[in-house]
Design goal:
single chain, 223 residues, alpha/beta, Rossmann fold, 7-stranded mixed sheet, two-stranded antiparallel sheet, 9 strands
Length: 223
C-alpha cells in the first residue's frame, strides 16, 4: 500500500482519442499528462464521464485499470471518457468547464480521496456548472468532515456507495480508509448504498468496481 510518492505520478489526466487506445492500457497510462499542461484534443461531442482515482491510484489501479479502462472499452459510443488522479485539480476543472461550455451533460465518479476532490471542485471552482450526476465511492477525506457536506446545488443527482466496515475485516485498505476519514452514509446524498460483499465475496476499500456496480444505473446506457 505504501509505495514512495516520488515514483508515482501525483497529478495526471488521461483522455483517450479513440477506442483502440483503451486496448493498450500501459501505453495509455504513459500518455497521461500533468493537468496544468492539459491540451484537450478530444472534441466535446458527447456527454463526459470523468473518473477520479484515490490516493496512489496510478499504482494500485483500483479505478484506473479496474474501473475506468474497463468501463471505457464498452462505452465510447455513448460518452467522452476521462481519468484524473485525485490531486489533478486544474485538469478536473478544465474538463468540467470545457464540456459544460459545449453544452454536454457531465457525470462524475470519484473513489476515496478522488470523491472528496470532486466534492471540493463542485463546491468551489465549478459551483456554477450543472452536474448531471455525482457518484462517490467510499469517499475519504483527512480534514473535511465529508459526511456533513451539504448537497451541492449544481448537482442533479448524488449517489453514494460505501463499505459497511462493521461487516468486513480489518485489512490494510480498510484501515487506511478508516484512518483517512471514511464518510460512510452521507445524509445529503439522494441515494446511499451500504456494501460489504459482491458476488458472495467480502470486499474492501480498494474494490471500486464493486462499489460502482450499485450506482451504475444512474449513468444511462451502461452495458
Amino acid at each position: 500500500m505504501f509505495t514512495p510518492d516520488r515514483i508515482l505520478p501525483a497529478d495526471r489526466i488521461i483522455i483517450a482519442k479513440q477506442i483502440d487506445d483503451y486496448h493498450q492500457p500501459d501505453k495509455l497510462i504513459r500518455s497521461a499528462v500533468h493537468s496544468r499542461h492539459l491540451i484537450i484534443k478530444t472534441k466535446a461531442d458527447k456527454p463526459l464521464v470523468l473518473f477520479v482515482g484515490g490516493a496512489r491510484d496510478f499504482y494500485h489501479n483500483a479505478v484506473l485499470k479496474r474501473l475506468y479502462i474497463h468501463y471505457a472499452t464498452k462505452n465510447t459510443t455513448h460518452y467522452n471518457l476521462a481519468y484524473a488522479t485525485h490531486s489533478a485539480n486544474a485538469g478536473i476543472v478544465t474538463l468540467i468547464k470545457k464540456w459544460h461550455k459545449a453544452g454536454q451533460m457531465i457525470y462524475l465518479v470519484g473513489h476515496s480521496w478522488g470523491a472528496s476532490r470532486l466534492m471540493k471542485v463542485i463546491h468551489k471552482e465549478a459551483k456554477n456548472t450543472p452536474i448531471e450526476c455525482l457518484i462517490t465511492l467510499d469517499p475519504v477525506s483527512r480534514l473535511t468532515p465529508g459526511r456533513s457536506y451539504p448537497r451541492p446545488k449544481n448537482v442533479k443527482l448524488w449517489a453514494n456507495s460505501y463499505i459497511d466496515y462493521h461487516k468486513v475485516g480489518l485489512n490494510i485498505p480498510n484501515i487506511v480508509a478508516i484512518i483517512g476519514g471514511h464518510w460512510l452514509n452521507c445524509p445529503a446524498a439522494d441515494y446511499n448504498f451500504s456494501i460489504s460483499h459482491y458476488q458472495q465475496q467480502e470486499i474492501n476499500h480498494m474494490h471500486a468496481w464493486a462499489l460502482f456496480k450499485k450506482t451504475k444505473p444512474f449513468i444511462p446506457d451502461f452495458y
